[in-house]
Amino acid sequence: MTAKTVRREDARLLTGSGRYTADWNLPAQLYAYFLRSDRAHAEIASIDAKSASARPGVHLVLTGADYAASGWKSLPGGVAYEGVGGQKQKKPFWPALAQNKVRYVGQPVALVVAESPALAQDASEDIAVDYRDLPAAVGFEAATRAGAPQLHEDIPGNLGFEYESGDRLAAEAAFAGAALRSRLTMRSQRLVGNPIEPRAFLAGFDAASGVFTVYSPSQGVNGMRGFIAAATGLPGEKIRVVTQDVGGSFGIRSFSYAEHIAVMLAAQKLGRPVKWVATRSEIFLSDNHGRGLALTGELALDREGNFLALRFEDTADLGAYATPFGAQIGTRNITVTMGGVYRIPAMVAHTRVAYSNAVPVSAYRGAGRPDIACAIERLVDHAAAEHGFDPIALRRKNFVPPEAMPYKTANGTTYDCGEFECVMDKALGLADWNGFAARRERSRREGKLRGIGVATFLETSAPGLAPKDQAHARFDKTGDLHVYTVSQSTGQGHETAFVRILREGLGLADHHFDERIRIHEGDPDLPVVGNGTGGSRSLYGAGSAVKLLGPKLIETAKPHAAAALGSASVEYAGGAFRAAGKSIGFFELARKLAAQASSPHPMDCVAEGTFGATFPNGCHVAEVEIDPQTGVVDVVNYATVDDIGNVVDHTSVEGQVHGGVLQGVGQALAEHAIYDRETGQLLAGSFMDYPMPRADWMRAIRCDEHPVPTKSNALGAKGVGESGTSGALGATMNAILNAVRPAGIADLDMPVTPDRLWRALRDARGKTS
User: Fold this and answer.
1) How far apart are CA 535 and CA 528, in angstroms?
2) What is the mean pLDDT of residues 630-648?
3) Do 190 and 292 contact (CB within 8 A), yes or no?
4) Are strands 159-166 and 108-114 parallel, antiparallel or unpaired?
């Protein structure tokens, strides 16, 4: 790796010099431990915490009764938009500590605060909880069947929301006249995010001011602060959120959690800081899960293979409570791009979401977009196989052409730009698609099955919840520039990208100037308007604000440069101001003004803008080899071509794509949060029984780009964080099915584990023998 490809943050993070939440400590802090429900569904008859409270070194035990007495509120969640018939989402009350009932294994029941983590854990074993067990319902189907146990009294049938997008009558009419139809159900199983940094939280409370200072991994302090304010009823200015380094997120850290609110209550009651650091076992039991969707799609075609209509009937398992993103994933997020990259004259999708006795579901890398992309691409491949079309030719025939841009889909989404056929052709070349037949024959001679699969996908990157994105520029006493945004890096390399954007905007070619620029994300004492990291919008949101900051800084500095040069006006180029044969460098001017002890610094300024959603797209080609004797799938080749608009840092882009692809392959082949259907116990509660994807699963991956810049933001960028996952699910599954379809297998569910595939191959041989 050359010096130019090393990210600014790498040296700090790789040498242990980073500062994660567990690294923070405050004077006189105490330690928290949570007693969690060991059953999925039960009434709480009584809780006796006297023995635990009496232990030496124990300072406090909190239960649901204490939370009720505090007057604090339900954890926020749910969607504000209306569903079918104008209905609102039914959202149950969600306490930070269980009240009256527990509704999933791992739900916090009591909080113990003591002098050490070990003492708090030991004391938790003295808490006596008397439960009256209730039957459990795990998953959408179990929760909505006739006679299913009801989780919440005010939500009959456990059905929380019903949503529809598109024109049902138009779709039904198109299906009625279609010569060809294909139907497929794609189940996207529950997943555990498992970021490398376990969740942690430290809360301090100042009684005099009524201000909480909390330390937590997050995807942006504004979202975290908003969640805490809603749960506690406190005004936002009474909550200071501190996040420095974050070891992975994937969407599950967009907002706060029940444990955070309970820790804050303990800190307030004790008047001392309280710290909690989760174990990996707690991560499985308490971090929001991902996916939990089932999408049944139908495609109508004419005899020539032109797409006529598409309809989906979808279900979503929310888990026990409504997170801020849970219902949105299964409704708007899987319908906004339900047509993918294709011209489809009529579309409709109907979704039902339900509560069940499992960990609540929230955003997980892609938040529904990989699921709908996979469903579309699997359905297109299925239709090609079912009706005798070449899968590449079928796609080519139905792509939205560049000349149709901007293109408004049948359910109202407008794509601004894209060259889908060019992207696919580039990917096919990168993957040597035409040479596959020879490779398949070689595998056949070795007793292996070989398959190749393509996924041409489009996703939307988030428009954001904040009205605008800001970047604040502040100069310190030495004249160094500090830039403040809200977007929080969780491993994406924001420092590298944002410094490069600003240095280039200031015309500073020399990398030496990088040391004069420092990036700060989410300073608790500087209110910055903006969106957190989520939906692949950091670069084109916060990054665009940083892009606009360059010319804003130059214009702000010009009158001061003119005064320094003794001229009425100056010109700026190459990092310096010039007039009448004299010049002064940008940072030379900043240092001179700082020496004059002016506060604030006269060059301080703010740049801002409103940047809408974009539509990253791409084509992935996966090639797999399968050992029919063991069912083991080996991903032998993988190629990606992405249209993510203008690229700022190719190294970071490639890293994002690699990570996203491997997470998608992990879902396709291995990962699954499995619950016992009778008891509601989580059976995949550790890395002993929840396989994580490994680096050696992707020995041969080649990446390229086909940028079609967007005009919706200052950078012309589209976002890349989730594109790898959005392409990987469909490409990997299509490759596996391409390999096993000649053996008589037309469909498989994720994850395609060796056992599941071996059994399917055995059963297929039995049917033909």
Assistant:
1) 20
2) 97
3) yes
4) unpaired
CB 197 within 8 A of CB 13: no
Lookup: tokens for 87: 């209905």
H-helix or E-strand spanning residue 331:
none
pLDDT tens digit sequence for 513-569: 889 999 999 999 999 999 999 999 999 999 999 999 999 999 999 999 999 999 999
From the CB of residue 84, how many other CB atoms can be counted at a distance below 10 Å? Answer: 12
Is 151 in contact with 320 (CB distance < 8 Å)?
Answer: yes
| Under 8 Å between Cβ of 166 and 348 | yes
Reference 618, options 724, 471, 763; nearest CA is 724
Q: Which of 128, 137, 156 is nearest to 44 (CA)?
A: 128
Q: CA–CA separation, 634 vs 443, rounded Å?
A: 12
Query: Closest Cα partner for 544 from 609, 483, 633, 632?
Result: 609
Q: Are 274 and 217 in contact (CB under 8 A)?
A: no
Where do we find the tokens 């189907």?
A: 141
Place of tokens 């060259």: 419
φ, ψ dihedrals at 239, nearest 5°: -130, 115
pTM of the predicted model over 0.90: yes
Asked if 714 contacts 611 with a C-beta cutoff of 8 angstroms, the reply is: yes
- Residue 27's Cβ-count burial label (10 Å; 0-12, 13-18, 19+) is exposed
Nearest 5 degrees, angle CA 301-CA 302-CA 303?
120
| Local structure of residue 150 (DSSP, 8 states) | P
Q: What is the token pair recorded at 459?
A: 């996703």
* Separation in Å, CA 246 to CA 228, 500, 506, 586, 662: 19, 21, 29, 33, 20
Q: How far is CA 238 from CA 76, 265, 485, 635, in A?
A: 18, 14, 20, 51
Task: Over range 129-145, report the average pLDDT.
Answer: 98
Q: Which of 729, 642, 614, 734 is nearest to 424 (CA)?
A: 642
Cβ atoms of 333 and 292 closer than 8 Å: no
Nearest Cα to 113, choosing from 55, 46, 26, 37? 55
d(CA 538, CA 542): 5
Quickly list DSSP for 66-116: HHHHHT--PPP----S--GGGPPPP-----SS--SEE-STT-EEEEEEESS
- 554-613 tens-digit pLDDT: 999 999 999 999 999 999 999 999 999 999 999 999 999 999 977 899 999 999 999 999
Which two structure tokens, joined as six digits, stand for 434? 């035409």
pLDDT of 50-72, one tens digit each?
999 999 999 999 999 999 999 99
Total Cβ atoms within 10 A of residue 425: 17
Q: Which helix (H) or strand (E) holds 726?
A: helix 723-740
